[in-house]
Amino acid sequence: MSAVFGEPVARAGITIIPVARVGFGAGAGAGAGRKQAEVAQGGGGGASAAPVGYIEIRDRNAVFRPIRDPLVDVIVPLATLVAGFAPPRMVRRLLRRR
């Protein structure tokens, strides 16, 4: 995969350069059936692009600012919290049964 930079946008002393991750692939193939006349060929390809952040240039300093997924910002801490509370509660319940 490679990174692709968009056109810079300058406003009020700040320049923003968009950054995207781009990937592509292609493939081809051929096959034969039981008879010599049964030959098939084919191919295909695809590409994808997703924004990953931007470069902010201000006062001659450049900083990369990633675009974060808000869903991940909620799910990861919540899953960590649940994972932290679950084992001690399970141990307490097991000890109470004995």
Describe what this molecule looks like in 3D.
The protein is 29% helix and 53% strand. The protein has 1 helix and 5 strands. Strand 2 (9-11) and strand 3 form a beta hairpin. The longest helix has 28 residues, at 70-97. The N and C termini lie far apart (56 Å).
Key terms for this structure?
alpha+beta, five-stranded antiparallel sheet, 98 residues, flat, 1 helix
Backbone structural class: alpha+beta
Gyration radius, in Å: 26 Å
What's the helix count?
1
Shape: flat
Helix-strand pattern: EEEEEH
Provide the low-confidence segments as ranges.
Answer: none
Largest sheet: 5 strands, antiparallel
Structure summary, number of beta strands: 5
What percentage of the residues does DSSP assign to strands (E)?
over 45%
Report mean pLDDT, rounded to a whole number: 85
**What is the helical fraction, as a range of percent?**
25-40%
Distance between the termini: 56 Å
